[in-house]
Design brief:
Blueprint (H helix, E strand, L loop, with lengths): L9 E10 L3 E10 L2 E6 L3 H5 L5 E5 L3 E5 L1 E6 L19 H6 L2 E6 L10 H13 L3 E6 L13 H7 L3 E9 L9 H18 L4 E6 L7 H9 L7 E4 L5 H12 L4 E4 L5 H10 L7 E4 L9 H13 L5 H4 L5 H6 L16 E5 L5 E6 L2 E5 L2 E2 L12
Parallel strand pairs: 1-4, 1-5, 6-7, 7-8, 8-9, 9-10, 10-11, 12-13
Antiparallel strand pairs: 1-2, 2-3, 5-14, 14-15, 15-16, 16-17
Length: 382
């Protein structure tokens, strides 16, 4: 029996231009509890006859999209390579919400000494408690990768929030290049762990500015029976030569990722498309909280791609919704459809300003203002 307090909250979002992420025209979206329960023409009078409390959001002159997914953030903070005062702070849930991000994947980078996997997992749990969805990569820059349970495979199978491993460094002077066979063993652990746990099991590669670029990943595919979908390199815009190799790798079945640290997303997208890149294999990330990386910059660059770069919303929206959901095997994310998580953005149609954000059905941004009070972001009591 359902108790009164167990009745799911109902929210009707109506009169908005829906991009799911494909364009669907003016439709309504009905949320109940954490899910989308209806999409299309919804009779408000019929809804009233249910006798249940509900709220209505008028999305006139707005577009309604899936919540955005950021597949690469240093949610514990980053930096530190220029000394202690170059360390950056943890990400706050309010900044994520203001950028329209309802799902985030956290990772470690160069510093796996003062920033640890248990702390990364705890941070993801904190963000989850604040209302958004948060996952992590196990490991970091180094080989062999640090793990929580002793192996990448065990982490994937045992720990719900682990979706892959990374960011593992290649072509970077700060980390020794792993051998092809060593890397094959690491990826094979992810492949087996993902098959047992039903997860993505990607290896997320930090690609540095070294001349070898993606040679190691191509050799891995050439010499070992590795499914390309498990290879997921990021920072692919360091040079045109690297972009060309990433385009070729995506054609082999890998996903590739562009970060927005350099504030030039639409220019990179233009190069990617002009040189035959498959946009279905591409994602975009913030690389927050590295120096120059932030959730706000991800939002700003996606908007600029539409308003300055000549791309349509339909061009860029999958890069932060459908595509990262596919590469990370987050089957309830990235789309607006019945039965999926109630992660929904309402954006001004003319400016793409964030007006409302729903994360798992909770109304966390209302009228452009964050409506959530996170304990992390409260000042200490005096």
């Amino acid at each position: 029996m359902v108790k009164p307090n167990d009745t799911p909250r109902l929210t009707l979002i109506q009169h908005g231009l829906v991009h799911a992420p494909e364009p669907k025209g003016v439709q309504s979206v009905l949320l109940a509890g954490q899910e989308i329960v209806a999409l299309g023409t919804i009779n408000q009078d019929a809804l009233q006859t249910l006798g249940l409390p509900y709220s209505v959001v008028d999305a006139s002159d707005c577009v309604v999209t899936p919540g955005w997914i950021d597949p690469h953030e240093h949610i514990l903070g980053a930096g530190g390579e220029q000394g202690w005062n170059s360390r950056t702070a943890e990400v706050g849930v309010s900044e994520l919400l203001r950028a329209g991000i309802t799902t985030v994947v956290g990772c470690l980078g160069t510093d796996t000494v003062t920033r640890t996997l248990p702390a990364l997992l705890a941070k993801a749990q904190q963000l989850e408690a604040d209302g958004i969805s948060a996952y992590i990569y196990t490991g970091g820059f180094w080989v062999p990768p640090q793990t929580l349970t002793g192996s990448i495979m065990d982490d994937l199978v045992i720990i719900d929030k682990v979706v892959g491993a990374g960011e593992l460094a290649i072509a970077d002077t700060r980390s020794p290049e792993p051998t092809r066979d060593t890397l094959a063993q690491i990826v094979s652990q992810a492949v087996v762990g993902s098959s047992i746990a039903g997860k993505a099991g990607v290896i997320h590669f930090h690609v540095g500015s070294g001349d070898r670029r993606l040679a190691l990943l191509n050799a891995l595919l050439d010499e070992h029976d590795i499914p390309p979908r498990h290879l997921y390199p990021t920072h692919i815009t360091r040079s045109e030569a690297l972009m060309d190799e990433a385009i070729a790798l995506a054609k082999r079945g890998a996903y590739v990722d562009i970060d927005v640290v350099d504030d030039n997303l639409w220019q990179c997208l233009r190069y990617y498309g002009d040189h035959g890149g498959d946009f279905a294999q591409l994602t975009v990330s913030s690389d927050a909280q590295t120096p120059g990386g932030s959730p706000t910059k991800l939002y700003r660059n996606v908007v600029a791609a539409v308003q300055e770069g000549g791309f349509t919303l339909d061009d860029v929206l999958p890069l932060v919704t459908l595509n990262p959901a596919r590469v990370l095997k987050l089957d309830r994310k990235g789309r607006l459809a019945e039965g999926l998580d109630g992660d929904v953005l309402v954006l001004r149609q003319d400016t793409l300003e964030v007006v409302h954000v729903f994360a798992r059905g909770k109304h966390l941004v209302k009228g452009g203002q964050v409506a959530l009070e996170s304990t992390q972001e409260q000042p200490a009591a005096s």
